[in-house]
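Why does residue order matter? Because the sequence determines the fold. Keep that principle in mind as you read this record.
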Amino acid sequence: MLGTAPFWVINGDIFISSDLTDLPTQLETNDLAHLLLVDNPEHNLSGDFALQDGRVVAQSLEQTGFTFAGIGLYDPAFFAGYGDGYRPLKPLLLDAINQRKVAGSLLKGAWTDVGTPTRLSQLNQEVEET
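Structure:
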């Protein structure tokens, strides 16, 4: 159903101003995903992951954390073995990260997680003011 080529997944509850046309369309050999990360927003100050030499790694006290932007390039094999239906993404990501099969880079430009009515309202106000 997913085919054989890597594909981008972009969360429906984010707002970005970045030009995404220069994003990679292929993954490095043996990688299962490439995640875009952003500086930590106020609602997630500790972040989700860290970057080390272009690899997404579990965050440690010595590393600067970043927030997953909700944008990732995935190999269909990343989802192999899972049936249809709802499944949290983070455990799958952590498994692939522990296998060192996830690359990452920082997203440049404005990014907002509009996952709550309050943040959506704040974003609408910001857009109206510009």
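Residues 124 and 130 are 10 Å apart (CA to CA).
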